[in-house]
Structure prediction request, 518 residues.
Amino acid sequence: MEISKLKMKNAFLLLMLFALAFPGFAQVKEFKVTPKSQGNNMKSADSANVFQPSKSPLVSMRIQFLTGATSDPQGKEGVASLTAAMIANGGSKNLTYDEIVAQFYPMAAGFGWQADKEMTTFVGQTHVDNLPKYYSLIRQMLLEPGFRPEDFSRLKQDAINFLKTGLREGNDEELGKERLYNIIYAGTVYENHSMGKVSSLERLTLQDVKDFYAKNYTQANLVLGLSGGFDQKFSNELTTDFAKLPKGEKMVQKIAAPKLSDGMKIDIVQRETRATAISMGFPISVNRAHKDYAALALVASYFGQHRSSNSYLYGRLRELRGLNYGDYAYIEYFPRGMFQFDPDPNLARSQQIFQIWIRPVEPQNANFALRATLYEYDKLVKNGLDQQTFEETRGFLTKYVNILTQTKDAELGYALDSKFYGIPNFNEYMKMALSKLTLADVNQAIKTHLASNKMRVVIITKDAEGLRNQIVNNQPATISYAAPKSKEITDEDKIIFTYPIPVKAADVSVTPIDKVFE
Prediction:
């Protein structure tokens, strides 16, 4: 959860070093590439790790443990995330967190963490000249955590506040997206937010954190990631130090797909808010290792490329009708989307969903926005793409994969994800798959994976009962424009006004905001 802050702290250092401006910094030394991994391992003994040496003056570290919220014991939801926070923001045995931050400051460095369902990743970056001192600090934090009671109290309260205040009260968009995951994965190990539940967090003890660390922070779960201007001496030191962790047992979990009943279900979350946010989606059997991944990635890009004005849904709902700020589609988990243009790496999951995110609309337009989205989704499933949109989107994606890995740190992150999925270098993997795709492949993937009768919809709004009545009583939608629209648009609006919302009254629920994440 702290990785975005770390990026901001390091931005000035990156600018001053021109690390991103000169391709020469990214020249990778010639080391053997291990099959089914992305990255250059410096020796065969490090096959479990991803080391990418280059001439960059920066060194990036991604120290990963293949454990996360799916390993939270029942009744202790949130302990995986809280353990990571205690390590990254809680100091070591010998140094308090404030003392560590004071030593980071002159190095313009920081240390971040990200705990998701199946992996927990610690991220750091520093100039190679500061590497010995910097590493001495994070080594202590990871291998000799302080686990002080005062840090535990502070960080536990931070986690509770994140769910109660940050999501429930302050962010309709992220709230809607995360609530959608809660509903789709109800009854599975993916059900709760990775930060846990408020009620379980309140019951957690410092001993729970210590127990989770002892069981899960082991060599069996460890993947070390390095990129930049380090040498083999340093990678050997890193490997040797982390070999001191208990051997442990590999966390092998079979993540079962959710079993959803047929038919649409809508959950309307009632909270005091001026706008109405909509998220909808359903589980898919495709992740990055699936043969249809590239095809569905192309479909999601065409239909709703994140923060792009070129996507189809954006054009129909925002550009032509001015409904909201944007409308997007995804086939992978993408939190914090309202704050960033590109997804963070190291959120790899065995299970994914297809999701449509409708950014907040005016409440009087919510009925229309819901029907319009279903109308466009149904058209996508029925008609697929044509040759021109297929070619244009494939060309865009072929270039876009380079943007996703344009920094050495991002490249390292994607390498770790490729290792998780058991696929080759992400850029090469995607470009090869895209080059072999045909329009028929893409349209068949739509029919196979996106024609679902298990749509789940989450709506965040103030007048929840009023909107529910509009839906269950099938009240026609309305929309008014500040300026005249073309006949094409007004004719299409007439179709959308009464476009079916195929849901039974019993399947449209209202949830008070204080019940969410509780």
